[in-house]
Amino acid sequence: MYLRNFADERSMLRVAHRDNVNRTFLSTVNRACNEVGFYEWRPGLTADEVDDPEVLDPEHIEGLLSVFEGRAAAPIKRILSSGQPPRTAQDRYDLVHFVALQAARGRRFREDLSQVATWATRRSVRESIQAEKAAEWLRARGEPHGPQDVEAFVDRVLGPDGLTLRPDQTFAIQQALAFAYLRLAPRLWTRPWHVVRFDEPALLTSDEPVVAWHSEDEPVTAVTAPVVWLPLGRQSLLEIRGDGAQGPDGTRVADLHDARRVNALVAAQAERWIMHHPDDHDLLADIDVGPRTRWTEEVLDTRITGD
Predict the structure, then answer these.
(1) E strands within the chain?
(2) What backbone phi and psi angles, to 5 degrees, belong to 3?
(3) pLDDT value at residue 260
(4) Per-residue pLDDT averaged across 199-217, rounded?
(5) Residue 67: is its pLDDT beyond 70?
(6) What is the average pLDDT score of the chain?
(7) pLDDT bracket for residue 137 (50, 70, 90)
(8) CA 244 to chain centre
(9) Where are the domains of the chain?
(10) 3 state DSSP class of 35
(11) Distance CA 106, CA 61 (A)
């Protein structure tokens, strides 16, 4: 339903590949970004262990997400027609959860979850690994286990191509919902909201439409960013200020320079697909889609244990 705000009268979108924006095709709203089984989950419980057996349905989460998207459709429509932020608590409630879910439901959140788990595990292993146990592990598998072999094994495990954790899909879904509902949504609720209007069609969207912006290009998330953006339609942008922002909700008119800044961030954040109205051919023309964000380790301090 959200994507219809960027589609033409036939419910068609122009879809561009994130890594090659010249590679485009037309798609219906219903088929754009449709991934079968992405939210299928198996919580490993029986009907006797839950209050509502429907939660055991592998498609339950997909249906839940559709409900929240459906509830947000009317508030978004009212924003697009009035140019004003939500006027009722119910509209704000429905939009808060829609924005929070959009920030957590995609592949980027799952990749971040994997990277955090990998980093924490490597740190734990680095602090607790013992050469004797590593040698024992290698010996049990019939592999060379001399001092140099153990050292090479430890370096490999703790290196950038070493141990990697990939949470299973059910766990990833649970973490995404917990992040959206329990951590992000309450913070978005209390922040100042602004609707940014453009005098002509100027905005695109993507499969990861909620973006976090920092004026100094600092690495931020929707939780920590001073500004969070979500394009609502071709001419309307929802702007949610950070925790420290003051003042009431409001509205303002922006120019094409601001639109290009938003579009560049939305396009760069996309996992696979960037989408816009079929008539808005030029939105990607002046955008240099930057590299994907990558997790790296930065040494801030060292500690040497001595006698």
Answers:
(1) 12-17, 20-28, 193-198, 205-206, 211-213, 227-231, 236-241, 250-254, 273-276
(2) -65, -20
(3) 94
(4) 93
(5) yes
(6) 89
(7) confident
(8) 22
(9) 2-34+191-284
(10) coil
(11) 13
Stretch 116-128: mean pLDDT, rounded?
Answer: 82
Residue 20 has pLDDT above 60, yes or no: yes
CA atoms of 139 and 150, how far apart (whole Å)? 10
Q: Which amino acid makes up residue 276?
A: H
Tokens of 82: 């009035």
Question: CB under 8 Å, gap of 24 or more: what pairs does 40-43 form?
Answer: 40/169, 41/169, 41/170, 41/173, 41/174, 42/170, 43/170
Is the CB of residue 96 less than 8 Å from the CB of residue 181? no
Structure tokens, 227: 């500004």
From its phi and psi, is residue 94 left (phi > 0), alpha (psi between -120 and 50) or beta? alpha
**Residue 4 carries which side chain, given as an amino acid letter?**
R
Structure token pair of residue 286: 């002046």
- Tokens at 159, concatenated: 């290196």
Q: How far is CA 135 from CA 189, 217, 263, in A?
A: 53, 45, 53
Nearest C-alpha neighbor of 274 from the set 202, 209, 201, 205:
205
Residue 75: pLDDT band by 50, 70, 90 thresholds? very high
